[in-house]
Amino acid sequence: MLDSETKAVETPEDHAEELRLWLRLLTCTTLIEGEVRGRLRQRFDVTLPRFDLMAQLDKAPDGMTLSDVSKRMMVSNGNVTGLVERLVESGHLDRRTSETDRRVQVIRLTKLGRAEFRKMAAEHETWIADLFADLTPKDVRELMRLLAKTKASAQKSAARRRP
Amino acid sequence: MLDSETKAVETPEDHAEELRLWLRLLTCTTLIEGEVRGRLRQRFDVTLPRFDLMAQLDKAPDGMTLSDVSKRMMVSNGNVTGLVERLVESGHLDRRTSETDRRVQVIRLTKLGRAEFRKMAAEHETWIADLFADLTPKDVRELMRLLAKTKASAQKSAARRRP
DNA sequence: CCAAATTGCTTTAAGCCTAAAATGTTTCCA
DNA sequence: TGGAAACATTTTAGGCTTAAAGCAATTTGG
Q1: Helix A111-131 crosses helix B16-44 at what angle (to 10 degrees)?
Q2: Does any domain span residue A59?
Q3: How do residues A92-107 score in pLDDT, each as one tens digit?
């Protein structure tokens, strides 16, 4: 009663478990991300950010604005600017100013970009399957559930700080 | 019998679930990492990579070699070189050439570095606890277990490619 | 013993990434 | 209607990151 309150105020809580969880989450992601990046480079001479950007555009046949891309990829605006620049340069992306709002740039995959992406994506999917091969379907479902909960929790915490 | 073999060869497997899992894992990590990076910058004007490097050294009172650090942090050697340079410059790290092997550089936290890190780490731990606040202890245990399994699976897959 | 391989680290070139400031455009509303 | 606010993007300055090449020191196997 009084004890539990006293304890909460006076003794620092033990959050070692959450810390370990965060480190493990980070390790897993870094490991897989590094593996995917290496394979993309070796097989297709493409970087992971470029692949990710093309993946977003592949899902949007009518194109996306740079802001959309930036939100979806969870990266800064300036980052997208440079990424798009290089992909337009290499002929994978088409970029045009919106007819109705001259602030907005709409980008799309070119025919070349789409063809190359589809080839990469097919192989990429097998890499991911292989990397997660030891998980049972039940494991996958359970992880999905727990990560959804984690994402919601983190978003709530972020919103608490930056309302 | 024949059917299952035929199927395995001729029809592409469906790995959409694993793909979704990977994307969710990546989203969670990016979200939390971004939040932690922002808080470190605002509260302590320090970058996440510097914090991570100091965290490694805090666990090694006798210091570490650059290779050790690079393996632990899962980043390239050249990356560590630059990171250490900046932290020595700012007075947080002490670096000396090994007596017994002149190729080796041993780095340690300075008194200043350790003091600053301890302060940051204490606060950092509360951020993590808050970000994971909605997970029950059981959720945490279960996630730990599944991520351990994931890590093992990914390592096995990576080793298959690069034996 | 000594040349070849290995190891630890640094350098290089290129690209990724962020926060913050700047630029140009549109919307809002008094 | 006219300016302030909001918005989309780009620019800037600085730091992070990688792969690959290079250098120096050590280990190894003939």
Answers
A1: 90
A2: yes
A3: 999 999 999 999 999 9
Which residues are CB-contacts of A114 (< 8 A; sequence separation ≥ 6)? A58
Q: Write the burial class of residue B163 (CB in 10 Å: 0-12 exposed, 13-18 middle, 19+ buried).
A: exposed
- Tell me how close the Cα of B115 comes to any Cα of chain A, in angstroms: 18
- Chain position carrying tokens 């900046």: B86
Q: How confident is the model at residue B144 (pLDDT cuts 50, 70, 90)?
A: very high
Q: Nearest Cβ partner of B15 from A19, A74, A126?
A: A126
Overall domain count for chain B: 1
Distance B64 CA to C21 C1' (A): 40
Residue A23 in contact with partner chain B when CB distance is under 8 A: no
Count interface pairs A-B at CB distance under 8 A.
Answer: 179
Contact B24, A148 (CB under 8 A): yes
- Per DSSP, the three-state class of A93 is strand
Residue A69 placed within a domain: yes
The interface predicted TM-score of the complex, written ipTM, equals 0.91
Interchain CB contact of B155 with A (< 8 Å): yes
Give a yes or no: residue B111 inside a domain: yes
* Whole-number distance in Å between B99 CA and C30 C1': 76
Check residue B154 and give its pLDDT.
Answer: 96
Q: Is residue B83 part of a domain?
A: yes
- Domain span at B91: 20-132
The CATH code of the domain that includes B76 is 1.10.10.10
